[in-house]
Amino acid sequence: MRIKSKWLVILLAMGLVLAACSPGGESEETTTTGGETTDTTEGPTETTEPTDTTGAGADIATDIGVDLEAGTITIGLLSDLSGQFSSLVQLIVAAHEIYWEDVNANGGINGLEVDVVALDTEYLSDVHVQRYEELKDEVVAFGHSTGSPQTVAIIPQLEADGILAIPLTWYSGWTDPTYNNNLMHHGAPYCIESMNVISYISEQLGEEATTLAIASVPGDYGLDSMEGAKLAADALGLEIVYDGSGQILPGDEAAFTAVAQGIVGADPDIVYMTSSPLQWGPIFGQALAAGFTTAHWSGAGPSYNPAFIAPDSAIRDAVAAMTTWGSYYSFWSDDSPGVTEAKDLLMASGRVDRPVSAYLEGFVEARMMHGVLEAAYAAGDMTQAGVLAAGKSLESVSFDGIAPDETYVGTPDEQLQRATNMWRVDLAGLDDGTHAGEVAVEPGYVSDAAAAFEFSEACYQLEG
Amino acid sequence: MRGRPLLHTSYQSDQALLDSWTKKVTTGLFVVFLILVPLGIVPGFQFLAETDWLRLLATVCIFAIGALGLNILTGLAGQISLGHAFFMGLGAYTAAWLGAPPGALVGMGLPIWIWLPAAGLVAALVGVAVGPTAVRVRGLYLAFVTLGLVFVGEYLFRRFVTITGGSQSGRSFPVFEVRLWKEETPLISFVTGGPWFGFELSAQAKTFYFLLALTVVFVVLAKNLQRTRVGRAFQSIRDRDIAAEIMGVEETQYKLTAFGISSFYAGVAGALFASFVGRMIPEAWSLFLSVEFIAIVLIGGAGVVSGALLGTVFVIILPRIVEDFTSWLASYVVAGEGVFVPVADLLVSRGSGDWGLVNTQAGVAPGLGVAQVNLVLYGLLIIGFLIFEPLGLYGIWLRIRNYWKGWPFTY
Prior knowledge:
Number of helices of chain A: 15
Structural class of chain A: alpha/beta
Radius of gyration of chain B: 23 Å
Largest sheet of chain A: 5 strands, mixed
Distance between the termini of chain B: 26 Å
Oligomer: heterodimer
Largest interface: A-B, 64 and 56 residues
Number of helices of chain B: 16
Strand order of the largest sheet of chain B: 1-6
CATH topology of the largest domain in chain A: Rossmann fold
CATH architecture of the largest domain in chain A: 3-Layer(aba) Sandwich
Strand content of chain B: under 5%
Distance between the termini of chain A: 66 Å
Number of domains of chain B: 2
Shape of chain B: globular
Helix content of chain A: 40-55%
Strand content of chain A: 15-25%
Largest sheet of chain B: 2 strands, antiparallel
Mean pLDDT of chain B: 88
Number of strands of chain A: 15
């Protein structure tokens, strides 16, 4: 009959078309030394049993992210490349790539080359979770995960999938066993940092400094920092005359003005404000414009950005005169072996326009991962679970002066870092190109409050 | 009549949702294709069975439900609304309140067959409450009113910390598991991999099937709405609301219904989206999300269900294509062979110092990052489609179809 044969012809034609499509799906393998995304074809389901291979590397167990035959290890980076902290995280990603290029050129990890895949999370929790899902079947571990709330968002999946991640944040929860089963802390957490910085400033200012104003963004980054500030105020006998904890709402200009007016109106001697540079700069500028020049300002480390002291910045001189900061890692002006080696690598790569100390954070993270991967290799287990176990049992990681040594065994109180490098802006050194504008005024400072602090759980407890 | 598909000889065939053999067959094949895709057995499309593509397809399903809602309101009933994100947020937080396990933030631990419909109902009720403004104002001014909703919503979501987790922190949402009441082990779980009917399926595949089933239901409902009395009333209001009122179509009642139905879709889509992503911050329900839905409806073709679906696929898959294309360009330049390498090198920049329009390392290298390219593209596409093809992708499809219908006598 006519109709049936017409449809038969059409079905046959469609069958021919389908058969003509390339069999086996897309196959695109791109590996570049610059650390661009690598696409490898796998079957629709990932194999999750460890496979023993007897090639180079004898009996090392692997599952995802380590390919002994191709000789590659893949590390993922969940990076904020276009959001609030992008200007610094881009540098940290570049530092990772430069570090691993150097390691690969010198034999890699027992012959295995490390590839770094960085995906942009835009500093948004939902995008962060999506990027994690995209990477979790390609990488053996995460070299960093940007943002406290964002890292909290992936903790359930990290625990379910058994993957290790290094948080690019300093929330005190990363030293708390409730949260840190899959995370490796580094550096003094925000609440300890607040204690150290406020104590240092208070010591420098002497007896006349009696009042403190605090403000922060909401979320665990801001509020952990505020908990430390309140503890410091208690310990030092400072009166909190303005409490703007959680009042700085990113993107909400009216909130900035309210906080700036609140601070100016309270007339404090010390101001401790934790946010991203996109909020810190404008609020500081508004307070200055209102004529408020008597206080000494600071905030958590990530609140600072080198753009504050750029040649065309309006707040340049004020920042140099009125602020003191703490840092988790060392400075470009340091001459310890680790920092010198890092500087040489960075300048030799040709990808560094000007010295910025934030690159050193990338080296800290990369060296942590290096230690973890070598420990996993030595233990013969480079599966995701094996790398996780190696990381959580690492007794000590040294950074040759870039940052204090870390340990991941022992009680939380023993693992807690309590030292902060205090630094101030030095415009002279910046202008003649000697360094990035940061000069250590007291490296490795530990305040009495921090030394006496007994740490058993995170300063700021998460909700939900 | 055979061979004359457009000649309908009964009300039944005239009103049918799929009114020609071609439509029935292609729809059927398409649904079968979608069912087979996650199993990885469709030749040429195995890459779609990978985790990230399955997640993308699941996102398409969720956004399709939201887009269908906006299509009913904007395309069918002609009421401009920029408040879609607000209703999605309402739905999401209703779902969290009812469905999330109890803890520091509110949650009652109720099963999915309560929280999912409730998410839609609560959003619908608020939509009906907002509806009377549409009776008073029209067009641009209605857009302002609904724009205000988004900002009111953002403020409220930030304030009610015990429900939403607060700015920047957010909260987690109930997962896709079917329970009868609050038992330990779910009847069906869409979030753990395992065998179904003999096939070994990943969690993403099961989630995709669940969302696909829901989307099919909502598509059928939306398509059906067009041929009912309510749908015809919507269309008459869209075309000339004063004339419609004179003819007996009650403006207030039907505008409220339009807002209610559209907000129901938005609430369900919001609850599904929040549960799918797992953790959302209050800032996620932003104006940009509303604009994304407007873009979907405009690019796809307002007023037509197929348009909403086409638009969703286009807008959701586009960022992934831009990303893949950019990294392919970068690897093409690195490989170095081929006639177009200099052109590709001009287009893409692979690191600082290498000039290019787009780059693979946002911010470090000159040029636009992938996220920024997407934003620019949305704007360009909306403008382009409004000027050149107001019927959107559906309009392009109509042109192609009419060309081939008359071929070779296309003049």
